[in-house]
């Protein structure tokens, strides 16, 4: 799965585009980093890829996933996963039921769904916590569960909007490594918005500064 942005720009009705046209290729397993000052349109760019553009913003250029133009597809048909800093587990569901909520519809039958959730909990280092109330988990455990919920939907690409910024330094490093490893294992492209140079340094894909729109290789 490759994510391709060609001359992508977003603009509010009657206004100038938020940033100059962006052209970018994110290959399978790669994390591309998008940086730029507050308000330049980083989250709006991710919304455009996810199919959630709101507030009168319109998109120009094209966004392709695996060669398919995403423009005509509604958000749910794009199968693009979104992880953001305030990603919360549903407080009224157990940890396992939170993960089951994300589970792709293609996994059918009670036993198969339970097995898929148990395997995901195990991979996230959360084995045995299926029936726990999310409020009783540590911050890192909650973050890992939220990521697994996103991944269980089998997204074809992942969008990360400052996903680690609420975590302390140690947890941040752990979640960053965990997330990037899953992106590589799933061989899906990811687009990460961050203000943190350490996140950018750890990413293996192109680095885009929306104020410069320079695309240069990072760690490759
Ligand atoms: N609900 C809204 N209604 C109108 N304009 C909005 C709305 N949300 C965002 N904007 C505007 O769209 C522009 C881009 O916002 P966006 O959130 O994409 O920026 P950002 O680069 O992600 O910022 P930050 O780093 O602070 O999250 C900003 O100028 C902002 O004021």
UniProtKB/TrEMBL annotation:
<dbReference type="InterPro" id="IPR003593">
    <property type="entry name" value="AAA+_ATPase"/>
</dbReference>
<dbReference type="InterPro" id="IPR050093">
    <property type="entry name" value="ABC_SmlMolc_Importer"/>
</dbReference>
<dbReference type="InterPro" id="IPR003439">
    <property type="entry name" value="ABC_transporter-like_ATP-bd"/>
</dbReference>
<keyword id="KW-0813">Transport</keyword>
<keyword id="KW-0067">ATP-binding</keyword>
<dbReference type="GO" id="GO:0016887">
    <property type="term" value="F:ATP hydrolysis activity"/>
</dbReference>
<protein>
    <submittedName>
        <fullName>ATP-binding cassette domain-containing protein</fullName>
    </submittedName>
</protein>
<dbReference type="InterPro" id="IPR027417">
    <property type="entry name" value="P-loop_NTPase"/>
</dbReference>
<dbReference type="GO" id="GO:0005524">
    <property type="term" value="F:ATP binding"/>
</dbReference>
<feature type="domain" description="ABC transporter">
    <location>
        <begin position="3"/>
        <end position="220"/>
    </location>
</feature>
<keyword id="KW-0547">Nucleotide-binding</keyword>
<dbReference type="Pfam" id="PF00005">
    <property type="entry name" value="ABC_tran"/>
</dbReference>
